[in-house]
Amino acid sequence: MIPRRSRRFSSTHKRPAALKPGMTMALVAPAGPFPSAQVETIQRLLRDEGFQVVTGRHIHTRDRYLAGPDAFRARDLLWALTDPQVDAIFTIRGGYGSSRLLTRLPLSSLGAKAKLLCGYSDITFLHAALGTLARWVTFHGPNAIEFAEDPQVLKRTLAFLQGTRPFQWALPNSVILQEGRAEGRVVGGNLTCFSHLVGTPYMPDVDGALLFLEDKAEAPYRIDRMLMHLKAAGILHRIAGLIGGTFTDCGDPDEIRMILKEYTAARPIPVVLGLPFGHGHCNDVLPLGARFILDTSRGVLACEEPPLDP
């Protein structure tokens, strides 16, 4: 049975334009600090691909474990979200700090036109808030610092965001924990961050959704505790399927599989693990807020509506 469509995640979700040479990309740092020298490398790589590049005014400031004071980081992010000259936004790094900005941003009053936002890890907070309050489709994918570390990551990321690579993945290399077929909007991101959204106005509506989760360097008992929190909050009882990305450096992979299976076994929903999203060697771009089909009999996860405007 196909789950009912969530009212919040309807076809009115706003899609950003696909990237094209000549567009202007903004680099912002809403979370943790990073080596300043890498920004020049990122800018050069993006310009070599034909894009204009601008940066937030405060990206080189520092405040303890943050890339500057909250007010500065929020100001840069709001500029990127609202400046009509900016077409797309890449977050430079995850770490910690995005959640501290949410109360400072008028996300529900953003313009009717969505902008492309790409990032992951701590950026899960921004994905959730923009999807819930601004109704934007956003893109879980590499942070820009990874372009400087491996230019091939940029090439692969642009292939998705320019619309030349389909948002479709085969399942044979993944671990199918439960068989089934479901369709729904994809929500989620980093498990640690997503679990901290419970009880906030930024928590996505999970009714009939495909929940995507990934994480890094969390011990199995911590993964268990966060999933228990989602279960107790009623989240796991409302989803239509679970898409597991990579759980990198999270202990014994068999134990992670067992934990995920334990928390989803009570419901007849498809559950897969090991798709190339997250902190693993390959971090493909996954549109959050877009509608997908997860079908284990066909062995496919596929977007059923264009997440980008041509």
TrEMBL record:
InterPro entries, per database record: Carboxypeptidase_A_C_sf, Class_I_gatase-like, LdcA_N, Peptidase_S66_N, Peptidase_S66C, S66_fam
Keywords: Carboxypeptidase, Hydrolase, Protease, Serine protease
GO biological process assignments: proteolysis
Highest taxon of source: Bacteria
Domain LD-carboxypeptidase C-terminal: 183-292
UniProt-annotated catalytic positions: 121, 214, 279
Database matches in PANTHER family: MURAMOYLTETRAPEPTIDE CARBOXYPEPTIDASE, MUREIN TETRAPEPTIDE CARBOXYPEPTIDASE
Official protein name in the record: Muramoyltetrapeptide carboxypeptidase
Organism: Desulfacinum hydrothermale DSM 13146
